[in-house]
From TrEMBL:
Molecular-function GO term, any one: tocopherol cyclase activity
Superkingdom, taxonomy of origin: Bacteria
Positions of region (Disordered): 332-353
Comp. bias intervals (Low complexity): 332-342
Alphabetical list of PANTHER family matching this protein: PTHR35309, TOCOPHEROL CYCLASE (PTHR35309:SF4)
Pfam families: Tocopherol_cycl
Protein name (record): Tocopherol cyclase
Length: 353
């Protein structure tokens, strides 16, 4: 009974959302930042099931400065049902709570080790999605489980070796019954006001449950040893204002806390990250993510200032069907047989830089 309940994407209170649920999409995401050098490295892996129950995975390794992006779609993949863990390909990707290894060829490798992690607080009944955690059948779910850690290791990207010692690490998991929503927004920032122990993350978008449709946003803020979450529709609603792809404004209020986020980025400077289409066994560029956005954060408790400052290396993202359709049309026009770029033909993987 519990297995079938979790297969809808839901978790009971005090459950572990990091264990794979057996949904169509199980996604894992790590983000590394170093304000001293201005570098950002992103690693992601999703394990998916199509309509016939066959599994496949999409993997990507990206970096800033520049629009460095290496990616692959590969058959198979394993999302751990007992713990946080994901594997894809024959050594292509392996990630767990201790670190991440990626091998997309000699120009795209990562060997990350995670230390001194600030994880989601133990003993909390609900995760990053709040009360939505227990609702079966929601189309998409999100849980930011690593809110800052110290990195060691190396990355090899386009012939350059990057020493990761001193980078800070953020990580999250997302999963859903039908892939990504039709529209979403997301952001994450470390080093707010220059503090290594300050972190903010938010995620929102269109949510569906059968014929029911709505929009929702959740915000998680870490200040020192304290982690707060806002985004429950009644107790701590979040208002959003996105005038263009280059602006993210969010306000959230609870009985005790007020959070204001104001993000800006150059619309022309975004990476186009891959988004999986589980049933079609392909990933397409569908998320415009800025690696060096500017995010101003203000957090108050009963009017008293807890945190105020700017992060110069914020990740800020817009995505959705409009982005996927725009890029897919261009890819289909040039791909053999009109097949969208990234689809897995006859069980073969695709690797691209």
């Amino acid at each position: 009974m519990l297995r079938r309940y979790r297969a809808t994407g839901a978790d009971l209170p005090f459950g572990d959302p990091l264990r794979a649920h057996g949904t169509a999409l199980e996604g894992y995401f790590w983000r590394l930042t170093d304000p001293g050098s201005g570098r950002v490295v992103v690693a992601l892996c999703g394990v998916h099931r199509d309509g016939e129950g066959r599994s496949w995975s999409n993997v990507a390794l990206a970096a800033h400065p520049g629009r460095v992006l290496h990616q692959a779609d590969v058959p198979g993949g394993l999302a751990d049902p007992d713990d946080l863990g994901v594997r894809a390909g024959a050594g292509t990707f392996h990630g767990d709570e201790r670190g991440v290894r990626v091998d997309l060829g000699p120009r795209a490798r990562l060997d990350l080790h995670i230390h001194e992690a600030c994880a989601w607080p133990t003993g909390r009944a609900l995760g990053g999605l709040g009360i939505g955690q227990v609702v079966p059948g929601l189309s998409q779910r999100w849980h930011p489980y690593l809110l800052g850690a110290r990195a060691t290791g190396t990355a090899q990207l386009d012939g350059e070796r990057i020493d990761l010692d001193g980078f800070r690490v953020y990580a999250e998991k997302n999963w859903g019954t039908s892939g990504f929503p039709s529209r979403w927004w997301w952001g994450q920032a470390q080093h707010v006001d220059g503090r290594p122990d300050a972190c903010v993350a938010f995620a929102g978008g269109a949510i569906s449950l059968g014929p029911w449709r709505t929009h929702a946003t959740a915000i998680v803020v870490r200040v020192g040893d304290r982690v707060v979450r806002l985004g429950d529709p009644v107790r701590s609603p979040v208002r959003t204002d996105f005038a263009t792809d280059g602006r993210w404004r969010l306000w959230a209020r609870s009985r005790r806390l007020t959070v204001e986020l104001d993000g800006r980025a150059d619309p022309a400077g975004a990476h186009l990250l891959p988004v999986p289409l589980p049933a079609r066994r392909c990933s397409v560029p569908g998320a415009r993510q800025h690696f060096d956005g500017q995010l101003h954060v203000t957090v108050r408790e009963r009017g008293r200032l807890l945190l105020e400052g700017r992060s110069p290396l914020a990740g800020l993202e817009h995505g959705g069907a409009h982005v996927m359709a725009e890029v897919s049309r261009a890819a289909a026009a040039t791909a053999p047989g009109g097949r969208p770029a990234g689809c897995l033909p006859a069980g073969r993987g695709r690797r691209a830089a």
